[in-house]
Amino acid sequence: MRVVVTGGAGFVGSHLCEILLRRGDDVVCVDNLSTGRAENIAALSDQRGFTFLRADVSDGFDVPGPVDAVAHLASPASPADYHKFPLQTLAVGSRGTEHALVLARRHEARFVLASTSEVYGDPQVHPQPEEYWGHVNPVGPRSVYDEAKRYAEAVTTAYARHSGVNTGIVRIFNTYGPRLRPHDGRVVSSFIRQALGGEALTIYGDGLQTRSFCFVDDLVRGIVAMLDCREPGPVNLGNPDERTVVELAELVLRITGSRSPVQSLPLPTDDPVRRCPVIVKALERLAWKPEIDLEEGLRATVSWFRSYGVEPAAAAGQAR
Ligand code: NAD
Ligand code: UDP
Fold first, then answer.
1. What pTM value is reported for the model?
2. What's the domain count of the chain?
3. In the chain, N or C: fewer CB atoms in 10 Å?
């Protein structure tokens, strides 16, 4: 296949490009490098079958040559990033998704949307099955992301229903692994950077809110399975191993051997209290389930952060 990966220079996108190339697909990575990094795809640039196209997908873009599939991942994903780029986040979820859908329609290509567990908002149903419609504050600080992704799901469904595009939607739950930006503000990257740098681990609120963390290698296997079939979804992709933020902090401290203290900071507005995916559909429709447990995944991530040379001064130099 020749696969277009929007957001391919980001954390998840770069792993997706890599796995697709490894199995023999050609990959066109389309990215504006707003929250992604050229170094994420530096090792791919020399590989046969890999093309990088620097473009903002919200402005419209074209890909010369054949296209068999479009994986639409372009979007800021960390709360810190989408608070920094609120209008760009809305634009890429709306106009960016439409441009990616038009590309897929023109080529009669498979289209897969990277949606998110954030469409469930601060969920009132726990754990979250795909049938749950969510509990989102449309005017809260997270709405630029949540509503953009909800619109992205709606427009994707409309292109399937009314234009016959072969679409699939995956709802991705918190994912971590190598190539997280040390200063992206997400909890796993923050805790590892802080633990390795001897800084206090910043726990927001009482730390009893939960998330379910999926290792990136598991996630991209799921995205590839979605690309390879005609399942419309939405399908949750996540690891149902639910942990509190305090538990995560303790695990990071143990794995790194750090003696960093923990520091309490205010809970951000509308921070979801609990989040855990029901993954029965992924198992039934994609034969997918996560295989890497949190400790193993965190060890791999910590070792990548160490090799990346994370300590406070160096990490700050890499922040975007
Ligand atoms: P990321 O910020 O590392 O990657 C996003 C990529 O999209 C970056 O390379 C960025 O430069 C690019 N991008 C952003 N706006 C663009 C635009 N207008 N035009 C072209 N490129 C643009 O984030 P990530 O964690 O890799 O997330 C990838 C996708 O997966 C996103 O759509 C995100 O919403 C979704 N997702 C991720 C998670 C997670 O935990 N990582 C969870 C749920 C959903
Ligand atoms: N969090 C935290 N300390 C940090 C960063 C995040 O306690 O330094 C908390 C945050 O409040 C949330 C959870 O960790 O409850 C996951 O946050 P993240 O930004 O990684 O993802 P999201 O909120 O989008 O799930």
1. 0.97
2. 2
3. C
